[in-house]
Design brief:
Length: about 190
């Protein structure tokens, strides 16, 4: 049974507001189906949306917002990442078309079969279940390369310490091959003159 459902019958052409709160546990349970388990929801996700029926189509439009604990791809630090993703989904009645096996599974579980681009899909029956759609929107909102800060300095090439905390290799880092050569040259010049 889907957790997030809309009765199609109650929809009209005037958009109605729905506010779904997605518990952190819901996402964690989904994510454990083989997805990245370094991602942890920090607070309930929110799906605020307007739903309406335009002739036979169900139109869903809204925003997703949430916060997750992620691991910085540069320095490995865990940090809270704000997620936000607007969406618009139009569901048409399935009619006589035959869905693919994945679509058939979605129809069996949620009464909904989603298209590739998450903008269109089909429904069958009296209820639209949004579980899979919510899961896809959350996945879409996740950053591919999480960064704790846009300018995260990453790790020290010498000792592997996080650069935002600093490390004891301060002097070595400043010394480039060129400055080392310049130092040598200065020493030689001093010798010649001396
Ligand atoms: Zn970082
Ligand atoms: Zn270092």
């Amino acid at each position: 049974m889907p957790d997030f459902r809309i009765q199609i019958e109650r929809l009209t052409d005037r958009p109605e507001r729905f506010d779904f709160e997605v518990a952190a546990e819901w996402w964690t349970a989904r994510a454990e189906d083989g997805e990245d388990d370094s991602v942890r929801a920090e607070a309930p996700f929110r799906f605020a949306l307007d739903a309406s029926r335009v002739s036979e189509d169900v139109v869903i439009e809204g925003d997703f917002g949430g916060s997750v604990g992620l691991e910085c791809s540069r320095c490995g630090k865990r940090y809270p990442h704000m997620l936000r993703e607007p969406y618009r989904l139009v569901l048409e009645p399935l009619g006589g078309r035959a869905p693919d096996p994945e679509g058939e599974q979605g129809l069996a579980e949620n009464g909904v079969c989603l298209g590739e681009d998450l903008e269109v899909g089909s429904y069958r029956g009296a209820v639209v279940g949004l579980d899979d759609f919510f899961g896809e929107v959350i996945a879409l909102a996740m950053p591919l390369q999480p960064l704790c800060a846009e300018d995260c300095p990453g790790l020290c090439a010498h000792c592997g310490a996080r650069q935002d905390a600093g490390c004891a290799c301060e002097d070595e880092k400043v010394e480039s091959p060129f400055s080392a050569l310049a130092g040598l040259k200065a020493q030689l010049e001093a010798k010649e003159q001396g």
